[in-house]
User: Which sequence fits this backbone?
């Protein structure tokens, strides 16, 4: 099965693809979220994996835009949450004491500033376009740097050795990814599933949104997440993307969706799918 | 009164500042949303104006992050929505027929692709970091370009002349901005106001969110907009930012807020403020 994903290689999105399909051989990075989705839509790929939300920096708006734009034609077939950790990596033979210049993306340099100040007080920092680009540049012998800060995945990808793991200030950062496929039936429930709904309604009546959400809570379905998204055809009005903690095979959710359809202009199911949390993240959460 | 805003000069955020305070003389651009907010927090500025949402590209996550991080210490004191239009501009004396190379940000070049193909079929395009940077480069005689695509504001700012107005494919694009100040009482209602609430609750009970939102609809208060924001201290759990179409001076909203406090872990008012829609946008909406 061919996977399109938000590149470049060696970033956290590639880790998400590996988590979903450890033995996938055909994984192709695309430069933007719309480009990865277009690769899926045009039929050349079976899945597109793109980031939905990071626990520190919030939603990824282009992904919401794609979900809304292609509702009814694309379907979410899985979500996976992975921990986002930064590692210091260098060429084989480089010791921590040798590191004078560290290259990474500004966001990662910011997240790892304290660690670098403590362990590499005399090192300069150099900016790259992405953490993967930093690792690639180091591996390619590009700029005169000794070490890169990137996802652990990048070390394996670019033949570098990890000098220090988990050097970011936030040890609990994580990113949620969605896997998309072209339309079709949902897989059966796995026991830990979510459903994403797209609700479109004129907001002139105060109770519309709470009325339709009430159909869920009345049937013991939890709203896990909700986002407004601007309607392109109606200024100042919104779609609502809602994630609930149940598979559509759960009778309470199916009933609620039927009832909700009565109260709104349109309601699309964007998919019922397994909600996968990486074992490492799960373990930390249990330990917290 | 000193205004900090998301720069550079000549962008739509500067237009928003002008709309809020036409005669403001001390307006200072900052390179990022957090930097503009920090300028306000540190006491050197009375207001910070930052983008909240664009009708095409969705929310601006760093702005949501700042609203959540500083809840209780900062207050929204106004929102303003302005139309986002692109203009082709050049140095005095340049005619449309002279234009061979057009410089702008890739997003603006994409939005204006059709117009350029029709009116400047032989022109090349050159990429800049922002639309304002494109106008500045042209005005400064930088790269060998003849015209820039930018906000109309940029023409005045950089001494350029507009050759063509409103050349983007989407004529109804708009951006909403928030004006922030340090904590203090809200201004009285203007007749067209909004209130932003930050709700934090454990999502284990299915009805919590719909229960609290129901307190609003029961009192004829409309939910205009709602966004989940990840809680930094509780993995997989969320804050909810809710905008309603009323001032807190409206008794129904004040009552609803009191009732909502009973059902959640915490509820902060981020401000009750005038909701300003630029006259141009308003006129187009009425005509639509």
Assistant:
């Amino acid at each position: 099965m061919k996977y399109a994903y938000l590149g470049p290689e060696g970033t956290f999105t590639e880790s998400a693809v590996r988590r979903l399909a450890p033995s996938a051989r055909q994984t192709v990075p695309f430069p933007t979220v719309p480009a990865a989705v277009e690769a899926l839509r045009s039929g050349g790929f079976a899945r597109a994996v793109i980031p939905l939300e990071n626990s520190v920096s919030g939603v990824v708006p282009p992904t919401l835009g794609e979900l809304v734009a292609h509702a009814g034609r694309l379907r979410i077939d899985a979500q996976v949450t992975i921990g986002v950790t930064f590692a210091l990596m260098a060429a084989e033979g480089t010791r921590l004491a040798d590191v004078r210049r560290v290259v990474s993306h500004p966001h990662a340099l910011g997240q790892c500033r304290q660690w670098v100040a403590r362990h590499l007080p005399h090192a300069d920092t150099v900016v790259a376009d992405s953490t993967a680009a930093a690792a690639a540049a180091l591996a390619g012998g590009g700029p005169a740097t000794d070490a890169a800060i990137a996802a652990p995945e990048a070390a394996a990808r670019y033949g570098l050795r990890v000098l220090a793991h988990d050097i970011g200030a936030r040890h609990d950062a994580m990113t949620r990814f969605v896997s998309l496929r072209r339309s079709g039936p949902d897989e059966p429930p796995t026991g830990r599933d979510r459903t994403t709904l797209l609700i479109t309604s004129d907001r002139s009546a105060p109770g519309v949104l709470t009325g339709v959400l009430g159909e869920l809570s009345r049937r013991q379905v939890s709203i896990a997440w909700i986002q407004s998204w601007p309607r392109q055809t109606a200024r100042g009005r919104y779609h609502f993307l809602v994630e609930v903690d149940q598979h559509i095979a759960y009778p309470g959710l199916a009933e609620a969706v039927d009832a909700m359809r009565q109260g709104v202009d349109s309601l699309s199911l964007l998919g019922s799918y397994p909600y996968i949390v990486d074992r490492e993240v799960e373990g930390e959460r249990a330990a917290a």
Remarks:
- Chain A has a mean pLDDT of 90.
- DSSP finds ten helices and 15 strands in chain A.
- The radius of gyration of chain A is 21 Å.
